[in-house]
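## Example record

The block below lists the input lines for one assembly entry, exactly as stored, with component labels intact.
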Amino acid sequence: MVTIKSDREIELMRDAGKILGLVHNAIADFIKPGVTTYEIDKFAEKEVKKHNASCSFYHLYDFPGNFCISVNDEVIHGIPSKDKIIKDGDIVKIDGGVNYKGYQSDAARTHLVGNVKEEVRLLVERTRQAFFEAMKYAKVGNHINDIGTAIEMYIEQFGYGIVEDYVGHGIGQKVHEDPEIPNYATVKKGIKIKKNMTFAIEPMINLGTYEVYTDVDEWTVKTVDGLPSSHYENTIVITDNEPEILSLI
Ligand code: MF3
Ligand code: CO
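Predicted structure tokens for the full assembly:
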């Protein structure tokens, strides 16, 4: 069931989103060569708690971390680890969820560390742009499929692989609510978009093949060809005009 939020609920999601946006900005300054993904996770947790909020992904489906931290060919759901040391040239995906007074916000960024290959830098920039292309269609009266179609139409010119096994989603009191929001065009139109629906839109784009698999750790999703992947996500609310992006400061 796709829920329509009350103005009061939107207000709480706006607060959650603001906290997550601030935390993402703080993490951007914290990431540098030599830091471990465990240290980034602990830093994220401390920043979230400063705002009297909690990390939504902590133990969600038994996930063993606060934030998902995925490096290079790791697409999503990377487990923070003391053994994973960030180095020059890496791209680091930080995917975080914040729970504030029972309402969720979900957002992801991909950070460039030092000297990143030009083709990878472009992948990251275009993945972010794909989100903003989708925003043009996140409007009252459109359908869910208009969002994925916009992402696919923008991305296909670059020959990248769009991840199909994981999708965007509704969000509210739970991190994952209906509807599913694919990052590609589908046969079904999907539900009609209405005011005060809240979505997490999250293109996951691979430099090479779209195919992914889950690592033996049972969490980390990786590209089959070992090439890098980029992720960008925000929580948004549908309005009478442009969508409002709640998790971007
Ligand atoms: N970050 C994921 C999303 O964007 C959800 C993570 S689920 C977890 O939808 F269990 F891995 F935390
Ligand atoms: Co999400």
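Residues 70 and 225 are 16 Å apart (CA to CA). The chain has four helices and 15 strands.
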